[in-house]
Amino acid sequence: SSLTCPHCLKQSNTFDPFLCISLPIPLRQTRALNVTLVLQCERRRFVRVGLAVPLLGTVADLREMVAREGRIPPEQVILAEVSPRGFLRSLGDAEELGAAGEEAALYAFQPPPARHAGTTPLPSRLAGGAALIGWEGLRLRPAAARSSDCLHRGAGGRILLLLCNTAGDGPQLARFGPPLVLREERGVSWEQLQQSILAQLRALLRGEVRAQGAGALFRIRLAGGSAPCAYLSPQDPRPLCHPAVDRALQLSGAGGPPHVKLTVEWDASTKERLFGNIQEEVVQDAESVRLQQQAHRQQHSCTLDECFQLYTKEEQVPGTL
């Protein structure tokens, strides 16, 4: 046994004969983790991949692995936990992996490419039968924020938005459809923002959406933040310029582009009329999901030589005064 002082480097060697020895068994250093990729490629839009993540790794390590799987730059990856009720939180690079992805599904979003200013118009007619919707019947909750009262007029440029659709209320609240990501101008009006969101959902709509009067077809809530629940107001000329949006951008964490998570809340009857009984998205599993689960379910084996290597591995002994 060799002991070296880290300060004076004095070395002490002792020789202790023994007839038997208790060897430690090396433990598995990785765990299987499934991540759903939300990509901009039409042929490979939603896919769930299986990864062997290090037990003592950080989110930065996971971001690199996801980037390799999706063939995208690591700085473009946005990692977030999504439960059956909506967004939970975004993950920052400095965080330890720990139990990430165990309590809620883990999603990796690729932002859409930057393009010139302007919003995507809603198609005048969508596939399927017509669904005529009146907007007057939907009222905001009393606690809805009036963001026009605290409008941040200096904001500009484009902003990344993660969208999650929910329907119902209280215990019946449930997410439906796939979570989405879009890039939008900060200065858009409520009507323009509503049009952009509907354009993202056109593949899920059962028919044509036609406006009757003025108002809101759904509520939009800032999600995943530590601040009290904040709703964007349809009466605000520029709802994305609310100071709560600025706070959400600052809290989105280091690693990946800054973004804001929005929950689009639909009335249960409106959701049923427009989308039918669709639930959560159907995601295709890559072969790596099965392979990683199979590899980590198997009994972890090691050789006698690996046990001796772990036994003789150098370690730091805490000093005493």
Please name the defining characteristics of this protein.
321 residues, alpha/beta, Ubiquitin-like (UB roll), 6-stranded mixed β-sheet, 4-stranded mixed β-sheet, 14 strands, hydrolase activity, Papain-like_cys_pep_sf, Ub_carboxyl-term_hydrolase, UBP43 hydrolase, hydrolase
Structure, described:
The two termini are 22 Å apart. Residues 117-155 have low confidence and may be disordered. The chain is an alpha/beta fold. Strand 3 and strand 4 (46-54) form a beta hairpin. It has one domain (2-10, 28-111, 156-295): Phosphatidylinositol 3-kinase Catalytic Subunit, Chain A, domain 1 (Ubiquitin-like (UB roll), Roll). It has helices spanning 59-70, 190-200, 243-250, 268-275, 287-297, 304-311; strands at 2-4, 11-13, 30-38, 46-54, 78-83, 86-90, 105-109, 131-132, 158-167, 174-185, 209-210, 219-222, 260-266, 284-285. InterPro entries: Papain-like_cys_pep_sf, Ub_carboxyl-term_hydrolase. GO terms for molecular function: hydrolase activity. This is UBP43 hydrolase. Keywords: Hydrolase.
Give the helix/strand layout:
Elements: E1 2-4, E2 11-13, E3 30-38, E4 46-54, H1 59-70, E5 78-83, E6 86-90, E7 105-109, E8 131-132, E9 158-167, E10 174-185, H2 190-200, E11 209-210, E12 219-222, H3 243-250, E13 260-266, H4 268-275, E14 284-285, H5 287-297, H6 304-311
Parallel strand pairs: 3-7, 4-14, 8-11, 9-13
Antiparallel strand pairs: 1-2, 3-4, 5-6, 5-7, 9-10, 12-13
